[in-house]
Structures are given as C-alpha cells and as structure tokens.
Task: structure prediction
Amino acid sequence: MKPQNDVALRVHDLKVALKVPGGMLPAVRGVSFELERGRTLGIVGESGSGKSVTARALMGLFPKGRSIMSGSVEIGGREILNSDARVIRHVRGEEMGMVFQDPTRSLNPTMRVGTQIVEAIRAHSDISRSAARNRAVELLSMVGIPHARERAHAYPHQLSGGMRQRIVLAIAISCQPSILIADEPTTALDVTTQLQIMELIGRLQDEYQMALILITHDMDLASSYVDDVAVMYAGRIVERGPVRKVLSSVRMPYTKGLLDATLQDDTPPHSHLYVLPGRPPDPRSLTAGCPFAPRCDRVKESCFQHEPELLSNDDEHASACWFPIEEESV
Amino acid sequence: MFGLIIRRLGQTIPVLIGASILSFLLLNLLPGNVAMAILGANATPSSIKIVNSELNLNHPIVQRYLEWVWSALHGNLGTSFVTRESVVSTVFARVPVSFELVVGTLIVALVFAVPTALITTKWRGGIVDRVGTLVTVVGLSVPNFVLALVLVLAFSVKLHLFPASGFIPMSQSISGNLSSVALPIFAMSLVFFGTYARLLRSDMLQQLDSEEYVTLARAKGLSEWRILIRHVFKNSSFGLIVVAGTNFGQLVGTTVVIETIFALPGIGQLLITSIGNRDAPTVQGIVLILGIVVVFANLFSDLLYSSIDPRVHYGNADS
Result:
C-alpha cells in the first residue's frame, strides 16, 4: 500500500513523570514520532523501557494529580496533551482505541460483554439502546465471535482468553477510531490464538484505515507486522526506522542485543540463545551518559560523558549511539 | 444453591448448642438468684428454698440444661420464672420493636454511607474527602451509648423535637412511631455508617487504582461518574453485602444497649431485664431465637451476593 500523507498522530518531545512513593519517576524522557493512517508503528523494548507508559499517556490515562506530562500530542491536528477532561474523553474511544495486554483483567468481570460494548458506543453517539445493541452484535461478528447475539449476554469468565481479547478489540474499534493502540495484545494468549488475534488486528486496520501502534517486547512479532519500528530504552527512543532497514542494518547495540535474543529461522536446535546482560536502569538514577552504556559490549570511556541524541544520516533510519554499528561490521 | 442452604442450616446447630450452653453457664455463675427477684426484699431463707424447689433450681445444672434442651426440641421454650408467661409469646411480642430498629439502622447507615463513599472517592484528597473521612472516623469512634445521651440532650431536652424515651407502635400512629425511633436509630446507625462508608471507599479506591477494567472503561471515553457508579461501585457493593451480613449479629447486639437507654420494649430490653432477674428460660429463649435470626441473616446475605454477582455460583458446575 502506498503511504498517504495523512498524519493521524504527531507526538513531539513527550515526557511523562509518574508520582511513585518517594518521588517522581521519569518514565518517558522525550519521545517524538509521527504516524499516518493505515501505517503501523511498533514500539519495542524491555519491561520498564517506557513503552506502555507512552501508550497510556497518549490517551491521557494517568490521573493529573499523579503524573506530570509535557511535550505535545496532536491527533488529527488537535493538541490533546494536558487538555481538559471533556476533550480527552472525546478522544478516548472515538479517535483512539486501545487493546490491553490481559483481556481477563481489562474486561469488567461483572458486566455482560455486550453491555460493555454498548456502553462504549453510547459514550460517543446519541443512538438508542437497541440500536447500540444491534451495532454491538455486528461488531462481535466482525471480530469473529460466532453466535454473536447470544454471546453478547455472556460474562467475561464464560469466554476463552482469545474470545475476550476479541471483545476488547470490538470495544476498541466500536467508534471507528483513526488510531488503534495495541499494548502487548497477544502476550497473555496462547500461541495459536496470538496469530489469530494479530491477523484480526491487521484486517481491522485495513478495513478502517487505522494508524496502529503495536507495543511489544517481541522483536520477532514486530518484524512481521509493522512498517516502522521504534526501539525504546530508559524512556527514550534509541533507534527508529522502517522495520526492514532496522533489521538489515542495526546501528544501536541495544537493538542488536534484542535481535540476538530472539529465535531466528536459522537458529540451530539446542544452541544457547543470546541473553542481554544486566537489567534496564532505574529511571530515577540515570547518569549523564548513555543509559545503555553499562550493559553495552561496544562501550567506550566517552559514552559515560553525555547521552547521545537520536540522529539519522538519511531521514528514515535514526539511532541514538556515539559509536553506531557500521553496516560492514554486521 | 440448595446445597448451600442445607449446609448453612446444618452449621446453625453447633452454633445454637454452644450459645445456649454458654448463656446457661454464665447465668448460673452470676451472684444472686431468681427467687430474690420474685420475692423482693422481704425474702426469707425458707421462702427462697420453696421457690427454688418449685422452679426445680435445686437440680444439678447439667440436668436442668438437658431438661431445657429436651423441651426446646419439642418446641417448648417454657415459661418465664418471673411473669409465668410463655417465653415464645413474650419474645415475639417484642420482635416488632427490635426489628424496626435493626432494619431502620441498616437503611439509614447505607443511605448515608453509599453517597459519602462515592463523593469521597470521586474527590479523593480534596476537602470533601477530608470532611467525609472525619465524619466517618467520628462515627466509628463515638460509642453509641454516648451518642445516644448526647442526642437525647440536644434533640429532646433542649429542642423538644423527639421524645427522650418510650415507644409508640406503628398501629397507633405512624408519625409518632417514627419520631419515637428516630433518635435510637440514629444513635445505632452512626457506627455502621462509618464502617460501610470507609469499607466502600477503600475498596473503590483500590479498584480505581489497580484494576485494568477501570483503565479500559476510561479508554472507552466513559465519564468518571459513570465508571465510578456502573463499574466500581457495583463491584464493590458485593463486598459490602457480605460485610453487612456478617455485621448483623453486632447490629442485634447494639439493640440491647439502645433499647435500654431509650426504654424501648424490644428484645434487647427484655434480655437485660431477664438477666437481672436470673430468668433463665427467657434468657435461653432469646439467645436461641437471636442465634437463629443471625444465622438466617448471614445466609440471606450470601444468597443475595450469589444471585447478583455473576462470578459466584454456589453448587453449580456450569461455570
């Protein structure tokens, strides 16, 4: 598909600090990206890299008193960051839908699934209850739930994990948003269901021409479903570009570490998988240098002096590293 | 469901046996005896002896207990030592008063606790929350008998709004009845109001902060009030029903103090008088009847809980 110049989401220098016991946690430290309708951005990183916080901040899901956000989030040309509750409510669901990691936890256990969809529809349009019900049943069959009319009366615990995730998807697309955020949508599901859910997400994206943000820790999953990838580390994007380019010519040692830690088609059986040494840093105790320096195998003395900026030689592929991996050395 | 009812009724039996033995023993350990209560100040040792043998009080305690159990099993709770009236009819004549107090207290406590919990949760950390928390803490920490006396002083002695004591039956005058139970119910309900409001608030806050379904509800674009009422309050109310059910015994216990203070002719007052008179059959009868009532209240709250929480199904294999 030819990319159209229809920017659905523009994020500029987004910073999010969360209030935690004992101070503020700078979870996201300046993230910028743009996303066009119909395209998919994969945000990849370990737990604690700030990828989920970024996603939730886009929807304004952190309560005002317990987070500080700065920068800019534009949806369809309108600034929504730190705007008032009415604007944000309008954006949620209507402009932006979200799918969460664990559908067992994200559905209300004591409400019929049909009602949970109806509620989402009626939050944004003045249609009657019965019209909303019919629409909910339509959505249920659209996300591949058989006997949709009867299933609408089920409670979440009466459905399988895959079914529940389909319900969450039905809720997310109920008002035909321009942007869909999927935060680890398949992590809590078993492998065969994962594939079905990813295919469903792709199909819905095509149907509604949604911009999709796929948040995952799984490089492998990202490489098969996204157009662009942004690798996050310690609250920043450290490498970004079209997924083919990033995979074929990795620049940032952290991205390489993530790739080496995934199973490839040519990985021989019984071989030891590479494990990235160390753990992600605590965002509260970052030093002046590159946050990845302590775990990096290409680290030099100067890496500890200043944090590198996200820079690109061509305008598509960018990385934040003082000593990026050269193409010939890969 | 049926299995649960049977099991619960089975559990009542040891509870009732335990309670009746305990009350029988305690009544015997107390100094003084029923003969003195009947004969009054001019009792002589010989007249006391006559009364004791008339009431079979010279039999050993185990024998007396077993005799009581035997007749209770035949549906006969005996006659009062003092008034010579049937225990069952004496107790049941007083049921309406205590029933009105208990039900009124539950209603008043819930009617005030639910909105308080909702607004303190909605504006947590704000001034409303602080005032609400203060009120609930006061409710929890002021003993009901102190509150009762303060209420009498303010609303009957000074303002003459409500009677200080006494009871007007509903059959006589509805407004008179309501005004005669207003202060007692208010005095009783404050502690339950505090308990329910705090419980509900903390449960709702916990859900708001940690439940992912709340995040999804927000992501749908629902208003905070709708999330609070349709999602969070609904899910927290199940816990409230269970607590209200298990608190029922405490509620019944409170009537003893309040009925005495306000001179209300309920079961609690009868219990106090009967203990004072060492009137064993009446005390035993009340303990037995209250025990059954409390067990049934718990059972009722469990059944209510299981019928409105779709996740809970007792004894059904289908989910």
User: Anything to note?
Assistant: The CA atoms of residues 275 and 283 of chain B lie 7 Å apart. DSSP finds 13 helices and no strands in chain B.
